[in-house]
Amino acid sequence: MKLFADCHPALILIFGALLVPLFRGHWRNALTIALPVLAFLCVAALPEATDGLPGWKADPLPWSAEPLSFLRVDKLAKAFGYIFCLNAVAAFVFAFYVKKSTQHVAALVYIGSGLGAVFAGDLLTLYAFWEMMAVSSTFVILARGTDAAKGAAFRYVMIHILGGLFLLAGIVLTIHANGGSIAFEHFDFVKDRHAGTWLILIGFLVNAAAPPLSAWLSDAYPEASVTGGLILSAYTTKTAVYTLLRGFDGWEPLVWIGCLMTMYGIVYALLENDMRRILAYSIINQVGFM
Q1: Is 183 helix (H, G, I), strand (E, B) or coil?
Q2: For 76-121, what is each residue's pLDDT tens digit?
Q3: CA-to-CA separations, 105 to 48, 239, 268, in angstroms, rounded
Q4: How far apart, in whole angstroms, are the C-alpha atoms of residue 247 and residue 122?
Q5: pLDDT, tens digit, for every residue of 206-227?
Q6: Which end of the chain has fewer CB atoms at under 10 Å, N or C?
Q7: What is the CA radius of gyration of the chain?
Q8: How far apart (Å, rounded) are the C-alpha atoms in residues 114 and 148?
């Protein structure tokens, strides 16, 4: 396990995705299973380092108070890391029938970006992986190749650009308010009474598909391929749940937002006839419980 102790699980998937087009058939299927298994072993081998592993820190930027921390490891991050890797193994088993490598490449980058966001120790690293997730997940939707998928992907990326802008504006204001600190820690609404905290929260809630910014999920996910929809259902919203746990744990209004999401998902699922859209609304319902 020491072999994996200095590896970043996200990079195993992201760079491993570059190898996928070189293989065909059973060899490609084996590769898509092996990569998340290796990432899982990497997560298991990582020593806890709440301030970030020393080998995965960059020098502070001229205007920042702390170095960039690409790999913060604690129990919460490892728990989500395990779940993300195990889900990837199951998802790629169901994707064995897919002939084109496009979806596999996009999916591996997407899952790797989710892992990168989970292990990010600072706001700038989080934002970089957050946007990488948005771009790669758009290609997962586009991989189906239908006109409906193209339209849904366009609307999907537009709403995620909006959410990313909220997040970026919040990060900039938060860094300014905190004297250059880029640390991604728990936000205190009593101490951090500035617009940056609220904008970051909105950015997280967009990806969590919280009403009224939740229509993108039921619009886009059903237009992806069957396995593409399976992969999408497990990462964007769950990464948002992680960031809410990390940044806003204990904030009572989130309970009410979650209750609204559960009711929203149930009501719209009952009114829907398309099975894949029913499943999409069920995701919103389940994220509300989380």
Answers
A1: strand
A2: 999 999 999 999 999 999 888 888 888 999 999 999 999 999 998 8
A3: 30, 20, 33
A4: 11
A5: 999 888 888 888 888 889 888 8
A6: N
A7: 19
A8: 26
- Cα–Cα nearest to 182, from 126, 115, 116, 248: 126
Please list the alpha-helical segments (H only) found in the chain: 9-16, 25-45, 75-94, 102-118, 123-142, 147-177, 195-207, 215-220, 226-232, 236-248, 253-271, 275-289
The burial of 127, by beta-carbon neighbours within 10 Å (0-12 exposed, 13-18 middle, 19 or more buried), is given as: buried
Burial of 149 (0-12, 13-18, 19+ CB in 10 A): buried
Interatomic CA distance for residues 31 and 268, integer angstroms? 39
Question: CA-to-CA distance for 231 and 140, rounded, in angstroms?
Answer: 9
Yes or no: say if 13 and 40 are a contact pair by the CB < 8 Å rule. no
Q: Is 278 helix (H, G, I), strand (E, B) or coil?
A: helix
Residue 46 phi, psi (nearest 5): -65, 130
229 HSE (CA, 13 A, CB side): 22
Rounded to whole angstroms, the Cα distance separating 182 from 171 reads 8
**Does residue 214 sit in helix, strand or coil?**
coil
Short-list 79, 28, 130, CA closest to 245? 79
Domain assignments of the chain as residue spans, ordered by start: 2-289
Phi and psi torsions of 58, nearest 5°: -110, 160
pTM for the model stands at: 0.92
Cα-to-chain-centroid distance, residue 2: 27
